[in-house]
Design a protein that fits this description.
3-stranded antiparallel β-sheet; 4 helices; Arc Repressor Mutant, subunit A; alpha+beta
């Protein structure tokens, strides 16, 4: 199970309820498919493939013809890309 920081949780939205417990951390797979990465980044599959080919996307793993993205690397990259708020 991967624990997601508060900053990344705000990008993901509210966690799904499990057994009435709302405070449980998000559980994401270690490797995301192109569709899952596109959903997370709110973009298209084509954009994910383009970013991967240009080496703009972190944590890309290629297994034969399949493209996967390491969740930890993607979430860390998103956390670094976020704009700081006035409170920070």
């Amino acid at each position: 199970m991967i624990r997601v920081s508060r900053a990344c949780r705000s990008e993901l939205g509210d966690p799904p309820e499990r057994g009435g417990h709302v405070d449980q951390p998000y559980s994401l797979p270690v490797l995301l498919t192109v569709d899952e990465a596109a959903d997370l980044l709110r973009t298209s599959r084509r954009a994910i493939y383009a970013m991967a080919s240009r080496r703009q996307l972190p944590g890309v793993v290629r297994i034969r013809r399949r493209v996967l993205v390491r969740t930890v690397d993607l979430l860390h990259w998103l956390d670094q890309k976020r704009a700081s708020s006035l409170e920070e």
